[in-house]
Design the sequence.
């Protein structure tokens, strides 16, 4: 994942961006499981940066899970301003109230 992030500006194919966002989600979850909250936060933030607004329609589950994990990682890392910023797209694009809840688990 870190090698992809080093060349993130070179990623132009939308499909590649989605796959790298998935890798960031996996890496972030693994970091969270090891209580490495700073790196988890970074992986999730990098993943969310790869997503576009239209990805909420085409890749809803990935978008929702990545942003929800990002909210949790920001919170446990102590970045409370980041929590609000990361939650904003969930609030905007979530299809129902139940989809908004995982961000606060």
Sequence:
């Amino acid at each position: 994942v870190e090698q992809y992030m080093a060349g993130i500006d070179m990623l132009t194919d939308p499909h590649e961006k989605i796959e790298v966002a998935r890798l960031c989600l996996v890496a972030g979850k693994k970091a969270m499981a090891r209580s490495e909250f700073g790196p988890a936060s970074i992986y999730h933030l990098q993943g969310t940066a790869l997503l576009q607004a239209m990805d909420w329609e085409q890749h809803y589950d990935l978008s929702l899970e990545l942003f929800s994990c990002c909210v949790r990682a920001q919170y446990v890392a102590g970045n409370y301003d980041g929590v609000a910023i990361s939650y904003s797209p969930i609030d905007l694009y979530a299809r129902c109230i139940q989809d908004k809840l995982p961000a606060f688990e």
Summary: Helices lie at 2-6, 14-33, 37-49, 55-58, 60-76, 80-93, 97-100. The radius of gyration is 13 Å. DSSP finds seven helices and no strands in the chain.
